[in-house]
Every structure is written in structure tokens, then in C-alpha cells.
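Input record (one chain):
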Amino acid sequence: MKLSSFIKLSAFGISSIFFKMKSPILGTIIVTDKCNLRCKHCSVNNITSIIYSYSHILCEMEVLYNMGIRILFLCGGETFLWQDGQYNIRDLVIKAKSIGFLIVNVVTNGTFKLDLPEADLILVSLDGDKECHNNIRGDTHDTIINNVKNASSNNICFYMAINKINKNTITSVCEVAKTTKNVRAVSFNFHTPYPDTVELQLSKKEKSECLKIISSLIDKKYPIFNLKIAFPYLIDNSFPSPCYQCVVIENGRISTCGRCIHVKDLCNKCGYFFVAEYTLLFKGNIKIIIEMLKTYLKYI
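The corresponding structure, as predicted from the sequence alone:
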């Protein structure tokens, strides 16, 4: 992260904490919900299969930027399916940077060539060891690992949603993150149980066991892009929600925190680690602030 970006983001955080502001700093644009996979845990793919136009997404970038957002995520569906004439996902990242976003990250399932050095992070889904990952996402594990190893930059972070199927493969994913070329870290979430995927939801006991493993791996210096101090709040969802500092925009509709806010009672079952981390951060938790600064400076 550039020093200038770090200073600007820090200033936002300090003012938000002291003045109890709820202004967003992190925004996500859904560039399409079209996806080449049909993963067992996903409830938001191929609902419309619309690929939004370049001009449409630029308008949404301007909306978010004018709201004060400076950390941008481009998500799908599958982001690398996005194309409008001569424009592809790389053009969106470059344009976002030129607009003034300080951090631009892209989320992908990793089944396409990873040639995107302009992104600060490419978050690549890896949902367990080969057997569990392929059980969830189809026969894609080897393709993803090969694409990661041959990526044009070392800006990759694995992204794992922990559920009933893959809960015993956390260490395996961390080992791959530690030893695979171009990977900076791995970021975890718990499965958020949309009504059609409730069977994959973890119990409190299972969450606690998973967090003990992740905590131990952090202590052993594995590259993990999560804040250990937030873990106790994730077991029983005792962190404040929604996160007002984060928004998602999809086809002009802005949702506070995430799209799941529109599903009744789903907030109470939220599995997103970043929601706990950000809401606690902006509540002024000093330990969270220190740990986040160390983590972000290390991996972004």
C-alpha cells in the first residue's frame, strides 16, 4: 500500500471513530452475476446472467467515489467473464485507479488466466483441499492452482468460505497459501446461510473449533489476512451489524453492508469476517485498530 493511500485511509478511520460517522469507505460493484460455475454454497449466480456495460459500471464507480468510498471491490458472478466490446476486467481496474480509488481488488473463482497486475489484490476462491474444493465447485482445483502459479503478479489472496463440507481443510489451504508462488495470504469467511444453502451452515461449536485452528496458524506465522482479535465475536455473531462503512451496488441498487441484508434474519447469521472486523474497528476498538494496521500494511 502506498504511504499516501495509507494516510488517507487512516484519516477516514480516525474521523469515523471520533465523530461516530457512518460514511462508507468500502464499496463493491457487481459487474455481472453470470458465472461459469454452479457452486454448492452460492445463491447469487446466474440469476439474470446480465453483463453490465462499461458505461453503466463507470457510472456506478462515480456514484461510489462521490459517496467517499476509496476501497473498491469488483465482484460477480465471475468477474473475468465481464467484457464489453474491447473492454475487459483489466480496463475496469485501470479506470477505477484513474478515478481515484486507493485500493482496487477483484474477486474471482480463478478458472481464468490471472493477468491483472494493476489490481491491489486478486481474491481467488479456494474452498478446501482438492477433494473438498472439487466437491463444492466442480473439477476446478488443479486449473486454479495452475493459473495462480502462472499469474503475472504476486497480488493473489486465497479466499475460503468455511462450511460443513470443507471445515476440516483449513490447514491444508493455509499450507497451499504459504508455499504457492504469487500468493500473499488466505482470507477466511464462514458460510452465510441463504435459505437454499442452510444445510452448509456451521454450528457455534464448529465455528469455535475452526477459529482455534486459524488462530493457531496465525501464531505460527502462516499468511492469514484476518484479525484474530475479532474471532470471539464471530462464534455467536455478537459483533454489531450491519456494517455502515461498506456498501454493495448492483444495477443501481445500493445495499448497506451486502446484498444479504435484504434476506430476512440473515444478518443474524452473517459469516463475513470483514463485517465483524470493520464494525468493531469503527466502534473504536483499539486492539482491532492496531491489528488491522499491521495486517493491511503486510498484505496489501
